[in-house]
Amino acid sequence: KLLNKADQNYQRNMVQAEIDCTPSSVLQFTLTRGGTASNDSSSAPNVVMTLGNKQDFPVAFKVKTTQPRRYLVRPNQGILKPDESISVTILLVDKDQQALLQNYDKLGFSQEALDAATKDKFLVQSCAIMPEYSALEEAGSNIALGKEQAEKLTAMWNHVGNKANNWPCVNKKLLVKHLVVNASPSDGTADTANSDSVAAIVAAAAATGSSSATKSNMAAEDMSTENLVEEVTRLRKKYDELIQFSVNLTAERDILNNSLEQTRRELQTTKMRSNSGSASAGADSATRSAKGFKLWTLVLVGIIMFALGRNLPIGGAAIQEVEEL
């Protein structure tokens, strides 16, 4: 059984653990212009991407983007068991939506020009779980990763990214397209977006335990249209601030993790160089000491022989004088 398991692990090393991704090539975000002065009446653009594991063993996945501060990805990494799938929600931050709409206006209201100017991309990575992280195989899309498991998964992806490990990894690139749709308040589109925004915000607030959003939902029926729009604008502003804060924290966490891993590697390299340098210095010192000892020995012997050479004639003369007496 142990041999069979070892063979399976070896075969996994050689397998390209590809997963199904829908959409497969382009992620399209719809940018809607609202009818209010604040341009906050439209719902936040988002895309739901479905990932599925068609392999007969657990597969790890990770979602990256060239604009980590512009998009909020949840979850951005995880484990998929065989025949298991997961929905990954990608949300475009409202602040960046407004910036894209302004660029669209500056480019002469040209969709082609906006597509050419925007170079956002996403990368979906997948690989088999490394043997030293086999405990992660117990996790799955239906089981939320704990703090310790998330840290181990992040550490594994850092090792996968190291070319020295030569661990197979499948990279799937997806392009991003921003489709601009002008909503007019006269045709009721903006009002519908307002109603959808209220429902989305209240649902998100309820999920995080926000009692204020629940109260707003209960009192929404008693509000006038103007009050409802103001309430939506206020809640959306807070919601966007929370999303932006979460995006910043996620980006800073990834940067700190990469910096910490790089520092560890540099420290280990420095220690190895220091140890080898100390050993060489010790050997050179011993060699110099041995050479110095031989030189001083020769000098001392030379002095003694010189002294004896001078004293021998004096001693002979003294003996001769004693005999004469």
How would you concisely characterize the structure shown here?
The chain is an alpha+beta fold and 325 residues long.
Which parts are unreliable, with pLDDT below 50 for 5 consecutive residues or more?
A: 35-42, 184-202, 207-216, 318-323
Give the beta-strand count.
9
Large-scale geometry: elongated
Query: Rg, please?
Result: 37 Å
Helical region count? Answer: 7
Assembly status: single chain
Sheet-strand content, in percent, reads: 15-25%
The largest sheet is: 5 strands, mixed
Mean pLDDT: 76
Helix percentage? 40-55%
Distance between the termini: 109 Å
What order do the SSEs take from the amino end to the carboxyl end, as H and E?
A: HEEEEEEEHHEHEHHH
What structural category arises from helix and sheet content?
alpha+beta
Widest β-sheet, arrangement of strands? 2-9-8-4-6
Overview of this protein structure:
This protein is α+β, with helices and mostly antiparallel strands and 325 residues long. 54% of the residues lie in helices and 19% in strands. It contains seven helices and nine strands; from the N terminus they run αβββββββααβαβααα. The protein has helices at 2-14, 94-106, 111-117, 147-160, 189-207, 211-218, 225-324; strands at residues 20-22, 26-33, 46-52, 59-65, 71-74, 77-80, 85-92, 121-128, 170-182. The strands form two sheets. Strands 2-9-8-4-6 form a five-stranded mixed β-sheet. Helix 5 crosses helix 6. The longest helix has 100 residues, at 225-324. It is elongated, with a radius of gyration of 37 Å. Residues 35-42, 184-202, 207-216 and 318-323 have low confidence and may be disordered.
